[in-house]
Amino acid sequence: MKRIFLVCISAVGLCSCGNNATTQSNQTKDTVAVKDLHTQSNADSVVVKHLDLDIKVDFEKKQITGCATWDIENPHNQEVLKLDTYNMTIDSATVDGINSSLLMKGEVPHLGEELQIPILPQTKKVAIYYKTGNKARALQWLDPQQTNGKKYPFLYTQSESIYARSWIPCPDGPGIRFTYSARVTVPKELMALMSADNPQTTNDSGIYHFNMNIPIPAYLMALAVGDIRFRSIDERTGVYAEPTMIDKARYEFEDVGKMVKTAEALYGPYRWGRYDAIVLPPGFPIGGMENPKLTFCTPTIIAGDRSLMNLIAHELAHNWSGNLVTNATWDDFWLNEGFTVYFERRITEAMTDKSYVDMLWELGYQDLEAEVADQKERDTWLKLDLKGHDPDDGLTDIPYEKGALFLRLIEDNVGREKFDAFLKKYFDEHAFKTITTEQFLTYLNDNLLKGDTTLINKLNIKAWVYGPGIPANCPRVQPERFKQVDSARTAFLNGTSPKDINTKNWSTNEWLHFMRKMPKPLTLEQMKALDAAYHLTTSGNSEIADLWYVMAVAADYKEAYAAMDIFLSRVGRRKFLEPLYKEMMQTHKEAMATSIYAKYKQNYHPLTQESIDKIVGK
Description:
It is a single chain. The protein has 18 helices and 25 strands. By secondary structure, the chain is α+β, with helices and mostly antiparallel strands. The longest helix has 21 residues, at 354-374.
């Protein structure tokens, strides 16, 4: 039975209804179902319990074919099962083993096509036979030359936010959880991995079986197929990569086992069994994806000195904030990412020191300032309003950095010990459940603020969650180590030779702060002096290299262009590509941008292609 709820948080001074704030009966004992505007499924009334997936990966056709069988319950006697699909051909369906009719409702922008299959009150199993299309947004098919090894093809998925529906007909919403098993057939020389219990060696049959016995949402469905090797780190952690990358990856991931133990010491046990990661080929569009049991990550973190492993701290933290306790809808995305950034920095502080993590807080604040300046006011609320939009439009620094700073503000006002106890309790009591912003604010008041009006007024929660920009009470760290960097930058700009500036012990954070605050553009003489002293054009650190190439485009420093071209051919991460292509377009180098993009477009994931298409006007 559906019912409308109004969440009134009187102690916080708020009375707020989330968009389409409708709740339904629990899907499972542990999951509260909330109507999600980005799914056309009826999982709010037909309960999906388990997915049995039997698929074949065909690299010649660049197509996944097979059958998705759903175990369902129909407590409300619905007449149809509605599932999400995108760019997919549905060949047939059966209901409890009997051939069934089906109906495709026509494509809706952003959401794809709704699939309807007639069911009865007693229906238990619905099987859909299907094949993916050539515009499946989750899939990147790589030819051998697009991989590191250059010998075999590769396939990987990116299902977040609503792209699982392009490779599995499914109820695709973050508040809809199900268990799954899978049988995946691939070419015999390749290995398949999923967000599940995984093999560690290639078998002789090319058939791999998987099981995920913890209910997860569709955006955490993941598949990788390729020439893959495994290296163990400790008894429950390890890393996968292509053979040409596996030794470098294993070196970089040396401290991941310690990282898991550090996270557990903060907020309780890791509940997913193993924690492994796979370093994917260069086209992967994001830094990392927190797929349960197997983080997918970009090769751009392989710097050779373990200096960029903070990204893994972030993806690991998601196994508490996101995978364990999940935002009910994409409008509540900050509950995943704000918590994760905060947790990531706590892990990093425990493994380094406060001076190091203070730099991360300041760089994050700088990112937030830039994002706020670039967004419309309504899009800078923590509680998003993505009705009629692709949920990816909400994947900005707002939920990440503003969300983390909100939690930092609470910590600063109640004390770390008290806040840590609250967060541990929050993760424990909401484990394997979904939650809305309004439900969290009620929980916050009931379990931490407890009606303390002085504290509530000081926090000014309404301004953070339902207000634009950066609130006036936002905490900001002034890192001591950045004061030295600021002095070095000033000295350089006043004529001191870079060779006379001591940068020996600088981390990536110091370099980024040094470069971010430079005037734009620098003169060619200044660019040459910096490059001669620090060899920035040939940096093996992707974070530093990307920012340097942006500076090079702005200054028309042609000496960096050949290396930048190679960088753009090898890197598919949107975080790095978008600023470079934007800088080319903004500095009247449109011909350069379109030429480079034409050469390397096919190296980029479909989601990255969509982003760059908008920038270069394709």
